[in-house]
Amino acid sequence: MREWLVRLAIAFGVLLASWALLFVLARRLPPGILRDLAAFIPDCVTAARRLRKDPRVPRRAKIAVVFAGLWVASPIDLIPEFIPIIGPLDDIVVVALCLRYAGRQVPREVLLEAWPGEPRLINRLLGDPARGGRPG
């Protein structure tokens, strides 16, 4: 039992370290795609927290947001977090899909209010409203 707890603590420590790395990279990298990817998960966490508390968000969208949060917090990943650069990719994909689903349920202005990062990133994820939500 003790060995299992030690392994769980190590996995949790690696997860926290990878999140810390993302936060540092999001602040220190020069503008560009790498910085956008590093900032995406922290921005999603903030947006999810804000959307979960917003009364204008329907229950289905809140469930999708909570699922995305649980996926990111889960130590079980398709791609292990400790692999540099590509480790967080499965988290990014799941969060993007959940936010895109929630984005179809929630008015765009509510999502834009909740998004703390670059508006162009959330707009690209949500798609062009003139094109029926398809990315432009």
Automatic annotation (TrEMBL):
UniProt entry tagged with the keyword Methyltransferase: no
Keyword field: Membrane, Transmembrane, Transmembrane helix
Domain of life: Bacteria
Main location: membrane
Domain (DUF1232) ranges: 61-97
Topology versus the membrane: Multi-pass membrane protein
Regions crossing the membrane: 6-26
Keyword hit for rRNA-binding: no
InterPro entries hit by this protein: DUF1232
Location relative to the cell: Endomembrane system
Name the record gives this protein: DUF1232 domain-containing protein
